[in-house]
Amino acid sequence: MDIARFKLGMRRLASGVSLITTLSDGARHGLVATAVNSVSGDPPSLLICVNKNASAHGHIERSGIYCVNILSESAQPIAASFSSVIDRDKRFLRGEWQVLKTGAPALVDSLASFDCEVRHALTYATHTIFIADIVATELWDSTDAPLVYLDGRYRQVLVEPDMTPAE
Question: Name one Pfam family in it (predicted).
Answer without folding.
Answer: Flavin_Reduct
